[in-house]
Each structure stands twice: as C-alpha cells, then as structure tokens.
Design brief:
The chain is 0% helix and 67% strand. The chain has 276 residues and is mostly beta strands. It has one domain. It has a 16-stranded mixed β-sheet that branches. The chain is globular, with a radius of gyration of 19 Å. The termini are far apart.
C-alpha cells in the first residue's frame, strides 16, 4: 500500500529544533523557520536510498527545507526517487547541507555519491540549492529553481564550499574564503557510478553553448582565495580551454588544482570540471 505522510513545520522566535525522520513510505518534509539565536538540525533518511542532513545556526536564521521520498520504485529496480531543496539565510553563522545517495540499480554503477555544501560568514550568507536522485544517478539541476545564485556570503570573514563525489570518493570541490563578498552560481552537477560532473555543462538538459561563462562561475569582491580541486583515477576534463588531465587508473592519479588569490573585483566565469 502506498502510504503518504506530510510534515509541515513553522519555526518562529527563539528555537532549537532537532528532527530525525526515517522514511519507508512516500513522505514529504516541508519546513520554514525565522528565528533569532536559534538553530535547525534535520536528518532525513529515505529508507535505504538516501540520507539528507541539514544544519544551520547563527544570530539570525531564516529559510526553508524540503525533502520528498517518492516511494515510487520506477521500473521495479528497488530504488526510489528522491528530491530535496533549500532556500536558507543566516547572519553571523553558517549553513550545512549534505545528501548521500545510498542505493542504486547496479547496472548503472554503484551508489555512494555525495553532495556537500557550506556557507558561513561573520556577516550574512545564503544557500539556494536542489539535489535529486534516482536508480541511475545524483543530479543537482538549478534551472527553474535558483537561476541567479546558489551560494552567497558577505562579511568581514566568510567561507563557501561545495563538494561533489562519486561512488569511489573521486570528485571535485569549489571553495572561496575572504573578506568582502562572493557569489557562486553552479547551475548543474551530476554524479553517477564512478564519474562526476561539476558544472561541466550539458548535465541537466541545458544547451551547452547557451550557458558558457554563465553556468559555473564566481563573482567576488574584497580580498580572498578561490580554489577548485578535482581528483580522479582515469581522467579529468576542464571545461575552460577544453583540456584533459590523464590518469593511469590508480587512485587519484589525475589531479587538478586551481588556486587564485584576489584583491578588488574578481570574476571567474567557468570553473566546470568532470572526471571518472
């Protein structure tokens, strides 16, 4: 029987919220909060298919969190579809958001893909991000959800980090820290089996050329350090310049490290990478 459960939570004033949901039927989590000096701590486990974790705390927090285990088992593969989104804001604090894909139709490759995002600032920071999984892959497609920015921070000191890994824990990360402001736009990412694609275009049904210089980019001002890493066994493709870093099949034998220190206005228009 296809049971349904709906959870709706409004969090106001001074709060400390801890919520753990273990899901074995179609379930929707829909949360909103608006609080001074509070925190929100959520773990959502969709049976054996996915695990989502969210945490935020600060002097002021506001936002929403959505998660849905579809309990649909498409094609009888024994793996349900899953979707989670957040629009979150914090002042004088941080936001963490993680998704772990824990099951897969094995002919599409092993499970174990992970998405992790962090923003924090002495000033303010925000996160607007969407992740979905099914029997074949993990995707983070932002078009139609958060098309102008995904991670933003402003303040005397801030950090922004996003990491995507595959079933072998190969993957890529984008990181910026500094003083001033930074906005990261990451419109599409995907990980399936032992491959990953962080902003390398064409991963979410988007026209590749239409998103050149507008798909995986940083806009920053002030002073700081910008870093993009990728690590893989066989190869890494860097979208800007269209070049490839070969590996020999051994663990992390292909490696990419871009590090830029900046002062003033700084834009990096295409940091997309992919690997396997």
């Amino acid at each position: 029987m296809n049971k349904k459960m709906f959870v709706s939570i409004m969090v106001v004033s001074l709060i400390t919220l801890g919520l753990i949901l273990t899901v074995n039927a179609q379930t929707i989590l829909d949360m909103n909060w608006d609080s001074n000096l509070g925190n929100v701590d959520v773990t959502f486990t969709a049976d054996d298919d996915d695990r989502m974790g969210f945490y935020t705390e600060g002097n002021y927090i506001k936002g929403s969190l959505y998660a849905k285990d579809y309990d649909d088992n498409p094609y009888g593969y024994g793996v349900d579809s899953f979707l989670t989104t957040t629009n979150a804001y914090v002042e004088g604090g941080f936001i963490e958001y993680a998704v772990n894909r824990t099951d897969s139709k094995t002919s599409y490759g092993a499970a174990g893909q992970k998405s992790y995002s962090f923003v924090g600032s002495t000033g303010n920071a925000s996160m607007d991000y969407r992740v979905s999984t099914n029997y074949a892959s993990m995707k983070a497609c932002q078009y139609g959800f958060a098309s102008s920015k995904n991670f933003e921070a402003n303040g005397g000191y801030f950090e922004v980090l996003h990491t995507l890994t595959d079933s072998d824990d190969d993957g890529a990360s984008v990181y910026v820290e500094g003083s001033g402001s930074a906005v990261i736009k990451l419109m599409g990412a995907q990980s399936a089996g032992s491959s990953f694609n962080m902003g390398h275009l064409g991963v979410c049904g988007d026209g590749e050329e239409a998103w050149d210089d507008n798909y995986a980019k940083l806009q920053a001002s002030g002073t700081g350090v910008f870093n993009v890493n990728a690590w893989a066994d066989n190869s890494i493709s860097v979208h800007e310049g269209g070049w490839t870093i070969p590996g020999d099949g051994t663990d992390n034998s292909a490696f990419y490290d871009l590090t830029v220190g900046y002062s003033g206005e700084f834009n990096y228009l295409d940091f997309g990478v992919a690997g396997n």
